[in-house]
Amino acid sequence: MNTRSNETTLVIGGTGKTGRRVAVGEIARVSGKAARYVPVTSEQYAAVLAPYLPAEQVTFSCDLFRYVLDGHNAHVSDDVQRVLGRRPRDFREFAVAAAEAWK
Predict the structure, then answer these.
(1) pLDDT (tens digit, 9 = 90+) per residue, 7-17?
(2) How many alpha carbons fall within 13 Å on the CB side of residue 51?
């Protein structure tokens, strides 16, 4: 494993950008269960969280939701290869390996 400063940010992900619809489709395929992706707005997400979380946590979660969905997580890096010394798995490989978790 490559040693790095604790102040280094690593981008850990798979081999490419996998959209949410494709990811849910893969999970449905390997689990044998019906599943579909339904996009929601941050306001809809907040309405679901509000009965269960304090307002500050709802706000934080919605801010994070907006940040992740606006493309900040779309970058594919070589950090997995550099740190672990192996190529990253694509989402299909991950879903197959984790199939029991989806059942």
Answers:
(1) 676 666 666 67
(2) 3
